[in-house]
Write a structure and sequence with these properties.
This protein is an alpha+beta fold and about 170 residues long. It has two domains: about 100 residues, Alpha-Beta Plaits; about 50 residues, Roll (SH3 type barrels), CATH 2.30.30. The protein has three helices and eleven strands. The chain has a five-stranded antiparallel sheet, with no helix packed on it. Strands 2-5-1-6 form a four-stranded antiparallel sheet, covered by helices on one side. Strands 3-4 form a two-stranded antiparallel sheet. The two termini are about 40 Å apart.
Length: about 170
């Protein structure tokens, strides 16, 4: 079976949740659970000031777009493309282009899970990225983000820094 990838679908503005619901209903009706794995409308928390009061609200990160994790074939393309409210896939012409891991990382959607051999309290060495060659003790681990928080010395102070599991190795 082919590999599933994330694709971006353009929708009418304001129809993102309706498109998501319609695609999920079609997946269930046509038994496409193995081919269309997930449909998402990325949201972010925003602090809004209204009448002098601060409130946290969720807003769409990309109004007019829906993310779909699916195996691209003629059936899945047809189902998504012909869903009410969908105007098309994002890509040149009519050819959908999957998102890369680099494009997915800021969205908090991980395509791979990295298994690690360290835990909170272990000393680790950073082997890539901005903090390369830094050594620190793991303070916190976030498996959802696939990242660990370590304290590094910055301007003479201990400062917490979040680093991806892919950039860390346990020291012996």
């Amino acid at each position: 079976m082919a590999e599933a990838s994330w694709y971006v679908v353009h929708t009418y503005s304001g129809y993102e949740n309706k498109v998501k619901a319609n695609i999920e209903k079609t997946i269930e009706n046509r038994h496409l659970e193995d081919e269309i794995l997930e449909v998402r409308v990325p949201m972010q928390d925003v602090v809004e000031m209204k009448n002098g009061a601060r409130r946290n609200v969720q807003k769409k990160m990309f109004p007019g777009y829906v993310l779909i994790n699916m195996v691209m074939n003629d059936d899945t393309w047809y189902v998504v493309r012909n869903t009410r409210g969908v105007t098309g896939f994002v890509g040149p012409g009519s050819k959908p282009v999957p998102l890369t891991d680099v494009e997915m990382r800021p969205l908090g959607i991980k395509t791979e899970n990295i298994s690690v051999d360290f835990k909170e309290g272990d000393t680790i060495a950073v082997v890539a990225g901005v903090w390369k060659d830094t050594v620190g003790v793991v303070q916190r681990m976030d498996f959802g983000k696939q990242a660990a928080t370590i304290n590094v010395e910055l301007f003479g102070r201990e400062t917490p820094v979040e680093i991806s599991f892919a950039e860390i190795r346990k020291t012996v």
